[in-house]
Amino acid sequence: MSILGVRRSRALRNGCAGVLRRIFNSSALLNWFNIVNKKNYYPRLCAISEGRKKMRKLLALAVILLASVVSANANQITYSDSVAGLFDLVADRDLLIPQFDSSLGTLNSVSIAVETGLQASLGFENKNPTSGGTFYVYTYFTFDPANEYTRARVDLSFNDAVILTSGYSDAKKYTLTNISAYDGTTDYAGTSGRILGTFGDADNQSFFYDSALAEFIGSGNLTFGVLSDAYTTLSWSGGSSDVRIATTGQAGVTVVYDFTPIPEPTTMCILAIGSLVFLRKRK
């Protein structure tokens, strides 16, 4: 006679199902019970013995936990780092991402998403308190416009190679008309000021690795270097004028580790118990 079943009448079968529904309230366990019934095996879960009731709970728990272990999926860990601000704060700043801790399990793949961006505005303010007029602003030097012009960029590198760049450049003559004498506020607006132009660029890139993953595993960090570079060339008419270009930049990286966890000792014990239960059932 097996541990899990002997033949019983239809009435006893239905009674067992009622007991299971009340005690476990588990549709998954009831489905298992129905499958067993079709094979003419009827669990001894309806026995009145208190000891058998405890065994019933233990076996049901083992089956449920075993199903959970078998259906376990790979896990993911996500790390991010970024920097943003005025252009001089972005320069020479490394982004650090922790390497994958091998004690968590087996690394399956690594996904990397990077982004860079720049925004800039060119402003003019006439500071002459008594006169206005027409003014000219140049973002290049007229004697060498091919090399002496305004530009900026942000590079993001990994493993000593640039993997993403954002930047802008401008070499233009701006003409400002109807500019009044200084209105008392240096805001590059109002009657004595103006925003001449805005510039911007934004880029992103994704990378995926599912082989040669050794460099991503360890107790240190992955280093993504951020390097900013700017060259500003401005000239204008009117000695009492204030001309400036303000640039902000950002860079960011997100790394996703996909891994399969290492089964814990308690999980292995559950697997062993579940295997013994099914072996005894088939005898």
Task: Record the SSE blueprint.
Layout: H1 10-24, H2 27-38, H3 50-70, E1 75-86, H4 87-90, E2 93-98, E3 105-126, E4 133-138, E5 150-158, E6 161-170, E7 173-179, E8 193-209, E9 221-231, E10 235-236, E11 241-261, H5 265-282
Antiparallel strand pairs: 1-11, 2-9, 3-8, 3-11, 4-7, 4-10, 5-6, 5-9
Helix pairs in contact: 1-2, 3-5
Mean pLDDT: 77
**Rg, Å, rounded:** 36 Å
Helix and strand run: HHHEHEEEEEEEEEEH
Tertiary shape: elongated
Give helix % range. Answer: 10-25%
Q: Provide the β-strand percentage band.
A: 35-45%
Task: Count the beta strands.
Answer: 11
Low-confidence stretches: 1-30, 35-49, 58-72, 275-282
Number of domains: 2
Secondary-structure-based class equals alpha+beta
In the sheet with the most strands, the strands line up as 1-11-3-8
Taking the alpha carbons of the first and last residues, their distance comes to: 8 Å
Q: What count of helical segments does DSSP give?
A: 5
Q: How would you concisely characterize the structure shown here?
A:
The protein has 283 residues and is α+β, with helices and mostly antiparallel strands.
State the main characteristics:
four-stranded antiparallel β-sheet; disordered C terminus; 283 residues; alpha+beta; elongated; 25% helix; 5 helices
Task: Provide a descriptive summary of the structure in words.
The protein folds into 2 domains: 10-71, no CATH class; 75-261, no CATH class. 25% of the residues lie in helices and 43% in strands. The protein contains 5 helices and 11 strands. The strands form 3 sheets. A 4-stranded antiparallel β-sheet has the order 1-11-3-8. A 4-stranded antiparallel β-sheet has the order 2-9-5-6. The protein is elongated and about 85 Å long. The protein starts with 9 loop residues before the first helix and ends with a helix.
